Amino acid sequence: xxxxxxxxxxxxxxxxxxxxxxxxxxxxxxxxxxxxxxxxxxxxxxxxxxxxxxxxxxxxxxxxxxxxxxxxxxxxxxxxxxxxxxxxxxxxxxxxxxxxxxxxxxxxxxxxxxxxxxxxxxxxxxxxxxxxxxxxxxxxxxxxxxxxxxxxxxxxxxxxxxxxxxxxxxxxxxxxxxxxxxxxxxxxxxxxxxxxxxxxxxxxxxxxxxxxxxxxxxxxxxxxxxxxxxxxxxxxxxxxxxxxxxxxxxxxxxxxxxxxxxx
Length: 263
Ligand code: 0O2
Prior knowledge:
Blueprint: H1 6-34, E1 42-47, H2 50-59, H3 67-70, E2 75-81, H4 86-95, E3 101-107, E4 120-130, E5 133-145, H5 146-161, H6 168-190, H7 192-219, H8 225-241, H9 244-262
Parallel strand pairs: 2-5
Antiparallel strand pairs: 1-2, 3-4, 4-5
């Protein structure tokens, strides 16, 4: 039997996970920086363990020399969304990229698995530049809500515990839990606007305060100490009042002051 050099086999897949994580996390970060709503709540990634690869290969009757050609989820990332409505937006983000090719899409949200599993899977081919030259590896992108993920993670652990044979009674209860998780998603969707508005407001407030503090920090080097003490007192008063308009006004004033000192 052929001996598999796991370190060598997995290295490019690990590189793919690292790059994909960075790319999708950057997308989220950029949206937040620009003050645009980000449909991405979190991105995680994992490299399939050799034992899981061998188990899958055994189950699907894949010979060791066909593992790389036939197992498509050795590299995997998971994009978590707050709301079901965010999922199509993330799918579009993936479809619009030109640094990866979509091979297949599996919609387990519309076509829920008999287990109760819900998630949207996109299989891609991802180009890599390795020390050995250019090559492509397959990778799986799973897109789901936090509620779907909570269920899937718990069910996955039970699947391992029972080696895939979860007792019927537990399976039924898990199915009920899957429906409850989906119900939570549906209910959350009804107050989505309220939640996202609150989150955006808090993001704007945090950015304003960060800008104010940066300006004050810079002004300390050039302005008079008495003036700075006065500004500091004023800032604490405005901060305590929790008034966004006053915070905005104060920020504009500091921007002008900073600009004047720069000139
Ligand atoms: P791991 O440990 O996450 O890597 P098939 O076996 O034919 O159904 P295939 O090729 O495994 O299909 O692809 P599929 O069905 O799209 O599933 C790929 C991955 O989705 C799985 O990888 C799981 O991570 C997840 N998944 C699919 N079905 C279920 C489910 O019913 N419950 C949970 N919790 N996860 C699921 P692996 O290799 O099974 O596991």
